[in-house]
Amino acid sequence: xxxxxxLTDVAKAANVSKMTVSRVINHPEQVTDELKALVFKAMxxxxxxxxxxxxxxxxxxxxxxxLIILEKVDTVEPYYATLLMGVAQALNEHQYALQVVTxxxxxxxxxxxxxxxxxxxxxxxxxxxxxxxxxxxxxxRHNYDYVDSDNKYGTFLATSAAINDxxxxxxxxxIELKESFEYSRERGYMDTMQKDGRNPQIVRFGNHSSEAQNxxxxxxxxxxxxxxxxCSSDRLAIGVERGIQHMHGNIPxxxxxxxxxGVFLDQxxxxxxxxxxQPVMTMGSKVAALLLQKINLALPMSEDHDPDRNNxxxxxxxxxxxxxxxxxxxHRS
Length: 333
Fold this sequence. Notes:
- This protein has 333 residues and is α/β, with parallel strands linked by helices.
- The chain folds into 3 domains: 7-50, no CATH class; 64-147 and 280-317, Rossmann fold, CATH 3.40.50.2300; 151-278, Response regulator (Rossmann fold).
- 41% of the residues lie in helices and 18% in strands.
- It contains 13 helices and 12 strands.
- The protein has helices spanning 7-14, 18-26, 33-46, 52-58, 77-93, 124-127, 151-164, 180-195, 209-218, 234-246, 265-268, 280-297, 301-304, and strands spanning 64-69, 97-102, 113-117, 134-137, 146-149, 169-175, 202-205, 227-231, 255-261, 274-277, 314-317, 320-322.
- The strands form 2 sheets. Strands 2-1-3-4-5-11 form a 6-stranded parallel beta sheet. The chain has a 6-stranded mixed beta sheet with strand order 7-6-8-9-10-12, with helices on both faces.
- β1 (64-69), α5 (77-93) and β2 (97-102) form a beta-alpha-beta unit.
- The protein is elongated and about 80 Å long.
- It starts with 6 loop residues before the first helix and ends in an 11-residue tail after the last strand.
- The model has no long low-confidence stretch (mean pLDDT 88).
C-alpha cells in the first residue's frame, strides 16, 4: 500500500527546507524560478497534492476572489472575456478561485477580496461598505487603488495619427458617461487638437454601434471628405464604419476611423479597424496580483477605504496604436 507524500518528503527530494517548499506553494512570487522548478518537480514525482482547502479553513480564509461587474455585460462582452482570462490566470497561479458576480448577488458567500469593474459615480457609496480588500479595474477619482490603460495617451496617439495622415476634419465620438476614463480620453483628443491649432468637435452616445451609425447617416451632409472619426470604443467605430459604407463613402481615402480597445471587434470589422489597443489580459493579471498583495499585507479596512490616504496604488499601462485598413497609412508599422 503506497503512502501519501508529505511536505517533508518533498523537501528531501528537492534538497531544500520545508519552509522553502511552503513558500513555493503559498507565495511563489517570493521564490526564484530555479527553486520553484526544483520543488514542483519533486511534487510531481511524489504526486504530492497540497490541501489548500484545509489550509484556507485553518487560516480563516476562502481562497475565493469575487470580480463584480457593475455595468451591462452585453455591451462589452469581448473586452470582459479577455479581462477575465487575465485575472483567472494570475489567481490560478496562487491557488485562488475566481467568482464572477453582479452587484445584486455580491453578498452571497464570503471571499478574501474584490475586483470591481465598471464602477460609476453612483456606485461608490455601496463600494465603501465592502468589508474585504478591494481594487478597481479602471481609473477613478475616489482614491481607490486601480489598474487601467493610459486613456489620455491613447487618444493622443489616435488624434496624432489622424493629423499626420492629413485629415482636415477630426471628430471625436465619445461615450455618454461622466466617468474618469471618458474624461481622460476626451482630454487626450482635445489637448492634441488644440496643440495643432484645430478646433475640437465632440459628439457623445451610449456605447452602441447603432447610435454611432445612425448619427453618421443622419448628419452625413456635415461630414466633408477628408474627415477622420476618433472613437472612444471599437463598438462606436464599427457603427461609424457601417454608416459611412451605407452612405457610400470611401474608407480610408475620404473618411478615416480609429477605434479604442483592440479586443476582438477591431478584427471582425470590414475593413479592419485601426485602433488603440489596450493590453487587457496583462492588465487583468496585474489587477489580480495587486489584490493578492493587499490581502497578504492584511491592511485595516479603514485604511484601504480611507478617501484621504496618500498611498493609493495607480498602475497605468501604455496602449498601442494598431494601424489597419481604416486609416490611410495602414500598411506602415
